[in-house]
Amino acid sequence: MSSLVPLLLCGILSGITPAHADGGDVTVHATVDGTPVGRDTLVLDPAAAPRIDVTVHNGGDTVHHVKAIRVSGTALALTFFSYDTTLPFDVPAGQSVTRGFVLDLGQLGGQATGLLPTALEVLDVNRDVIAGVATTADVRGSVWSVYGVFGLAVLGLTALAWVAALVALARRRLPASRWRRATRFLPAGVGTGLVAVISLSALRVMAPSPATEVLFILGAAAAAFALGCLTPHPADPPLDPPVDPEATQRIARPVPGGGA
Question: What pLDDT score was predicted for residue 244?
Answer without folding.
Answer: 60
